[in-house]
Structure formats: structure tokens, C-alpha cells
Design goal:
The protein is of the alpha/beta class. The chain has nine helices and 15 strands. The protein folds into three domains: 90 residues, Periplasmic binding protein-like II (D-Maltodextrin-Binding Protein, domain 2), CATH 3.40.190.10; 78 residues, D-Maltodextrin-Binding Protein, domain 2, CATH 3.40.190; 82 residues, Alpha-Beta Plaits (2-Layer Sandwich). Helix content is 30%, strand content 35%.
């Protein structure tokens, strides 16, 4: 199996990919959009993308890929504990650091540490936590990166501070994208997106009431802009159950007449 992930090696995306399919061929790509494109084109069999973090919430890029850019379906979800470290060229002292590189998600997850320990440092976004380590090494003694211990080991860098995330309970949820529909396991989750043809009072309540009437638990609900008209949104729901099961199928049939469009991202085993 060929597994695409947000690379290069040493990212949490690689860790999630290895947890899903250890021993498979791992293919690093520079963005989540590129990961999806690799699967769509046949370069990879499945792709792993980050979808949600305990501290930062949902990953907007990944949501938009699911909504607007791909017909791939969710095959599985993976939960990865996230431990961030401050990494620099060996011999660098904390007092020298003027610039800190990392992925925007990692920077957000370490906001308190940065504000308290490096309030005057310039913060620079990178495409991944591993690329951040490369940028810090290239810049030299006044730069550091936030990344994984594996990234530091792969690049021969030094960890100055460990476990700098804002909470020790920090985890990131990843999705595996591919083709087909996993069979029901009895412990599944289904993710959908929907819009309304007309903006009117009670539209969203009607959809939620259908789930309540069916006694189906919605584990997550949020919205994203449609990107077509200002003030119009795509609503997203994760709910317990598999779309092939009678109860889930019935509630999906019930909400379709209430919505302008319903897109099912997939049904997959819960992590």
C-alpha cells in the first residue's frame, strides 16, 4: 500500500500514517491538498490528513478539501498524542533565539509557551513542523523550530525544551482518505456536509430535530463559508452510526428534503 501524508518525514502526519499502515510505502507531500491529489491521481492508495486538534479545533484547509475539492471518502480516523518541542542547531541557547518557525497549527498549540518565554521573538509559518526544523537549521544560531523529537533526530538538531504544547492532553485527529466504503463495524462514525436552498428561520433546527427524533447522537457540528455568497454557509455534522445501517439511512433520507444539498464524506470506524 502507498500512503500519502503531509511531509517531510518527522511530522505528526507521518506518525499517523505509520500508525494506520506500518510497513507500507510512505509518500510525503507538501500540503493536505497535495495529499488528496496524490490519492485522486493514483500515486497513492490512501492519504492521511489532519482534521481536528484539541487546542486549535478544526483544520480549515482539510474541511475545505472535503467540501469543495475531492470525491474521496473517509476510510478511518486516527488519534495521535501531540508533543511539541523547541528545536535548534546544537549549541544554541534560549537567549539567542530571535525567530521561531513552525506549522501554523503547532504555533497555535504552543501559544502560551511562546508568549511567556519568547515574547519578542518573530514567529514564522512553515509548511510543516519538519520543514520548520530545516528553516531553523538553515538560518542558524538565532532561530528555533517547534516540531517532533523525530524531526530533531532526523536533522541532527538539538531539543532545547520538551513538551511545550499548551496542554499535556493535546491530541490531533487525522482522517484517512481513499475510495470505497468501509463495512459497518457496530462502532462507526459518519461525516456529512449540507447546505440550504433558502435561508429561513428553523432550517438548521429542522435537521437537528431529525437526528434527535431518530435518537442519533451528533458528536460534532460546525460551519464553513460556501465561498459563493457572503453570509451563506456549509454545515458539517459528525454522527454516530454507519450510513448503511437502517437508522442512519432513515435520518439521511429525512434531512435530504430539508437541504439544498447533502454530501456524505464517509462512514468509518471510530478511533
Amino acid at each position: 500500500m502507498k500512503v500519502a501524508f503531509l511531509g517531510p518525514a518527522g511530522t505528526f502526519g507521518e506518525e499517523a500514517a505509520l500508525k494506520f499502515a506500518a510497513g507500507s510505502e510512505m509518500l510525503p507531500f507538501p500540503s493536505h491538498a497535495a495529499v488528496a491529489a496524490a490519492v485522486e491521481s493514483g500515486m497513492a492508495d490512501v492519504g492521511v490528513i489532519a482534521i481536528e486538534n484539541l487546542i486549535n479545533g478544526s483544520v480549515a484547509e482539510s474541511l475545505d478539501i472535503l467540501i469543495h475539492e475531492t470525491t474521496l471518502t473517509i476510510q478511518a480516523e486516527i488519534i495521535i498524542p501531540v508533543v511539541h518541542n523547541l528545536i535548534a542547531v546544537p549549541g544554541t541557547s534560549a537567549g539567542q533565539i530571535q525567530v521561531i518557525f513552525s506549522h501554523t497549527q503547532a504555533l497555535g498549540q504552543c501559544r502560551k509557551f511562546i508568549e511567556r518565554c519568547f515574547p519578542k521573538a518573530q514567529v514564522e509559518a512553515a509548511l510543516s513542523t519538519t520543514e520548520a526544523v530545516d528553516l531553523a537549521i538553515k538560518r542558524g544560531g538565532d532561530a528555533a523550530a517547534i516540531g517532533t523529537a523525530r524531526a530533531a533526530e532526523l536533522r541532527g538538531a538539538e531539543i532545547i525544551a520538551r513538551g511545550i504544547q499548551d496542554t499535556d492532553a493535546n491530541v490531533t485527529r487525522f482522517l484517512v482518505l481513499g475510495r470505497g466504503e468501509p463495512a459497518p463495524t457496530g462502532r462507526d462514525r459518519t461525516s456529512i456536509a449540507f447546505t440550504f436552498a433558502q435561508d429561513k428561520p428553523g432550517a438548521l433546527a429542522g435537521v437537528l430535530d431529525a437526528f434527535a427524533t431518530a435518537r442519533i447522537n451528533c458528536t460534532k457540528i460546525e460551519s464553513r463559508p460556501t465561498k459563493d455568497t457572503f453570509g451563506e454557509y456549509v454545515f458539517l455534522i459528525d454522527f454516530e452510526g454507519h450510513q448503511a445501517e437502517p437508522a442512519s439511512k432513515a435520518v439521511l433520507d429525512a434531512i435530504r428534503p430539508l437541504c439544498g444539498n447533502v454530501k456524505i464524506f464517509g462512514s468509518y470506524p471510530r478511533a
